[in-house]
Specification:
- About 80% of the residues lie in helices and about 0% in strands.
- It is an all-alpha fold.
- It has one domain: Helix Hairpins.
Length: about 100
């Protein structure tokens, strides 16, 4: 079975849309984090697909750099989730809304 680039782009679009729905509709911070990761991996799939279509390696280099950025972002975001959970004993996004309001008022 030969897979064409359109199928990879359709898969990346589907993954990105699922991630966007997860970010918009969920309140759990961990689920929002996983949805953001899904969206970033969809973008990586697009870069890898376009890199495969063209003879240069620019898309692959960008995809590898993004993997490094995603790993650093994952470490920071998970540390932030742990700190917020220790402070509020919840991972619900609504419980963290008052943190921003207290700071600016």
């Amino acid at each position: 079975m030969i897979l064409n680039p359109e199928s990879f782009l359709a898969l990346a679009t589907l993954l990105f849309c699922i991630g966007a729905v997860g970010v918009i509709s969920r309140k759990n911070i961990f689920v929002i984090y996983m949805s953001i990761e899904l969206m970033l991996n969809a973008v990586n799939l697009v870069f890898a697909t376009f890199s495969r279509l063209r003879p240069d390696m620019g898309g692959s280099v960008i995809a590898l750099l993004m993997i490094g950025v995603i790993a650093a972002e994952a470490a920071l975001f998970l540390a932030m989730i742990i700190q917020l959970y220790r402070k509020k004993r919840s991972v619900d996004g609504d419980t963290f809304a008052d943190l921003a309001q207290r700071r600016w008022s």
